[in-house]
Input
Amino acid sequence: MDFSFTEEQEAVRELADRIFTDLSTQERLRAIETSGDEDRFDAKLWSELASAGLLGISLPESVGGAGLGFIETGLVVEAAGRTAAYVPAVETLAAAAPALAAFGSESQINQWLPGVIAGDTVVTTALVELGGTPGAPSVVAEADGAGWVLNGVKACVPSGTTAAAALVPARIEPDGVAVFIVPLDGAGVSIERQVANNGVAEGLITFTGVNVGADALLGSVDQGPSIVAWLVDRTTTALALAQAGAAAASLALVSAYTKEREQFGKAIATFQAVGQRAADAYVDAEAIRLTAWQAAWRIDEGLPADKEIAVAKFWAADGGQRVVHAAVHLHGGVGVDREYPLHRFFLNTKHIELTLGGATDQLLRLGAELAAEPA
Output
């Protein structure tokens, strides 16, 4: 793996960092949190990202995108994680919109992607199952003439209360799986707001006799399992990249605080125990960053990445918890003050850990991959 970025990628990184740093400030985040907006969607930041061309960074040039790859998308996601921004970077930019570009028909691409690129449309993914896995969905799709009828429930849908449409994996009896692009304002779709542990709204979406046309099918029925796996891999890797950003931001707060906070007339950063704990957190943060980018690079290169994705998510889940717990410890009482920015990274880290499987789930996935390899 080449850990360096190209000139073009560095330019994307610098642009994303500048926009997120300028707009997703502590004051702006606090204003959103106290505004009464239960969705916590930063429309101004989303609009600025659109104006800068970052919402279409990996989408086709034919519909106004930049036609770049997953690495460039990952740079935007990492910047979002570093600033705890209230935008759907993972579900829209890293998963749903690229999936439409990769597997969608020309009409699906033209219907949904221009709005995403312009910042007018949010599309999301419904991958979380109540007691199951994304590859074994509980929603059932039954053929109805040329179209389909969907019934079932999807939980914890990110941006489920603000998205215009969701990519919904559904079971086709007896043992098939297909993915549908479903408008969320249609008849038979009901959305109940769920509040995640980090305060962001998600959707509990119930589909009751939802009729969709043949043009709602993403790809083909035969492609369904591979499309679900594609979505899960990119979502999982994007979550690890967001965690890399959150870990880096947490360490930056530790560095600044321990150099300023004094005890016995000395900055606590000079104390051996403080330095040791901060050094351990730095090692964890670097492991999160490097494993996340290794997985992202292999995805971008079209290489097998199952093991690397599981390793990245393990470090994001397990190492991420160590980083933010160390950060809170080294801040003392300030670390649990909700007026101080560290609490957002702490809550986001827990949310990232639990989304699509925590550390144990990733070890089980990695173990299965290793066990399947020939001796």
In short: The CA atoms of residues 15 and 52 lie 8 Å apart. The radius of gyration is 21 Å. The first strand starts at residue 123 and ends at 125.
